[in-house]
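Marked as duplicate of an earlier ticket. Keeping the data here for the record.
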Amino acid sequence: MKKITFSLTSSKQLAKDIASVAGIPLGESKVFRFADGEIMARCESRVQGKICYIVQSTISPSTDTIFEVLMFADALKNAGAFEVVLIAPYFGYSRQDRVAVKGEPITAKLVAQMIETAGISRVISVDLHTQQIQGFFSIPVTNIDTSVLFGRYFARRFDELGIVHSDVCVVSPDHGSANRGRDVSSELNGASLAVIDKRRPAPNKSEVINVVGDVRGKVCLVVDDIIDTGGTVNNAVDALLAKGATQVYVAATHAIFSTCHLNPKIKEFVTTDSVEKEIEGAKVLSLAELIAQNI
């Protein structure tokens, strides 16, 4: 079965890299707006009988990037595509995965339903905010874990810097990400674990209550899935240094950075290309090989 890959507006370079690594041709697509603001997403390659991969992180403006996917999937099906697969390295609205306050929608579930309705038969994503999002779909969902990617990078990095792994403490910025921290630490020989106990008094606001674990004299590695405003990670860095940590490194899969300015006390910040954004001083790890392995 022949395959073809397409990019829309948010993941153009990553789509090229995936296509190159996987040995799949990159098709021609066109996204534009009419005078009244309506979006048009057009396929300009022959797709009849082919498996088509749409590569698009549904980042801000999330409504637009999601609607581009829905429209383009419909265009592919109309053009005779055998199958349409969505590769969404960052899955927008993933943080709206439950009713936190009475009267709220479960938007992540609504987005999943729209994706299925558009004719997409499979979704590939990276570090979904919560595992339960997979259950919002009735089609197969592959959730790629970046723990090994980050773990192996920092194992090499700490070796280069002469930092003994047993002097490292991998820190989860909240209880929900404790498993991610544990998985990253498994790539480091003898690293310890800690968790930040925090609360959210309001959306996009966080307060550190306590650090659970001994970080005194340790090189700390904070591992998270998303950095948006930076409040959580910046407060965590200050809390860890106040508790006696000697240095703090930070790794996050999705660097949304809507209003974020990283704490200057961070020794090194590492992210992936799930969001194509220039971040001064950041080390960016490519997801192309991990994603290519899954297609």
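See parent ticket for discussion. Residues 147-285 form a domain with the Rossmann fold fold (CATH 3.40.50.2020).
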